[in-house]
């Protein structure tokens, strides 16, 4: 229970402190302090962390001494009770006794220069005294234009929950991970945009890449402005850190982020992060940092399924006020199954190409656009090259391979083509079936199993399949 005497003494201290430091310095370093107890002329205050205590001692000891002289007298002392962070539970550690008057004798004058300085924004855009902060968010990223599917439903739901009630859900921190181009940045920026536009209370939302964070940290050391760097980040209400895997191996940057993370989390602020892999696979990260990443919720983004890819294309077409036939949309959705970013790039390029050349968007234009843009394994081994090789080696027609005939002279080449497509391309089973008259994935699985068995039992077929593979490697 907080002592009323301690509260009165601390309020008197704050009167002096307010007059000697900037508003942002006061908000970052003194508002979180809780006056705990007054014992004789010793004031015990509670601070959020060991780092917080060290920062006060390194940078504000003269101001604290001045405040104590005013509130208690020259024989007043200050003692810190440091909150030790164990998971999500806060426990009090036995207080550390620090005599500010003694420390005052060994602190150089320059430590107190922050009193009249203006904290610098590490983004080098504007001072922190302004009421409007730049969040570095892209306004185009919203929940409305994020296409939801089975591949991202959990991540999307968790993100929206955080956006509606930042720092009040159990999803703190929220870690979203997944491969390149699956929508991680879109989703976390949508969180920031939603909070900025809909929050009743004014919140400072900040989006920053881990690469930028590291660069700022290095610059702050070089320019002797680490205090400005720390003060800036510790006043953020919602911190969105993109590509956290970039911090791997950077010990000093990780240590700094660890302290910022602790401060924000203990102050009830929201932390959102993205990564290209789950926390357990983040090599080169400190264990104490990894453990904190796991406090909240970790949600993954997977490669979008066919239906989601079709919905993504339809969404882009609608936003661009264009028209693409269903046949072309299905072709694009089947052909580009790696990530959303690549899919969006192809569709936008296709629409632009048609507009510039005043052409109709048909299947041929789509194929040419894909061929010029997509960097893929199918450039060497594609469905088209496999079908060409099969028709040449077995003297069958493409129409027969894609048709319904059950003649063995056609069925066997068709099954070999499906087997090779699975072995030598990244196409899904459903996409492979699409190239053979829209057959379902169970038919493709049966074909692959049949050829696997024949390779083990039929030398001629094993030889034929081997020769086909060699052709593709030339």
Rg value: 31 Å
Query: What is the terminal-to-terminal distance?
Result: 78 Å
CATH architecture of the largest domain: 3-Layer(aba) Sandwich
Note the overall shape.
elongated
* CATH classification, class level of the largest domain: Alpha Beta
Largest sheet: 5 strands, mixed
Which structural class best describes the helix and strand composition? alpha/beta
Number of strands: 10
Average pLDDT reading: 82
Helical amount: 40-55%
Q: Could you name the CATH homologous superfamily of the largest domain?
A: P-loop containing nucleotide triphosphate hydrolases
What's the tally of helices? 21
Strand content: 5-15%
The figure for the number of domains is 4
Describe the overall structure:
This protein is of the alpha/beta class. It folds into four domains: 4-109, 2-Layer Sandwich (GMP Synthetase, Chain A, domain 3), CATH 3.30.300; 153-301, Rossmann fold; 306-375, Helicase, Ruva Protein, domain 3; 379-473, DnaA protein, C-terminal DNA-binding domain (Chromosomal Replication Initiator Protein Dnaa, Chain: A), CATH 1.10.1750.10. The chain has helices at 4-20, 23-29, 50-59, 61-71, 100-104, 153-164, 184-198, 210-222, 226-234, 251-266, 287-293, 306-319, 326-335, 340-357, 363-373, 383-394, 398-402, 408-424, 429-434, 441-457, 459-473, and strands at 34-39, 42-47, 77-86, 89-92, 96-98, 174-178, 205-209, 238-242, 270-275, 297-301. The strands form two sheets. Strands 1, 2, 3, 4 and 5 form a five-stranded mixed β-sheet that branches. Helix 12 (306-319) packs across helix 13 (326-335), helix 14 crosses helix 15 (363-373) and helix 16 packs antiparallel against helix 18 (408-424). Mean pLDDT is 82; it is low at 86-119 and 125-132.
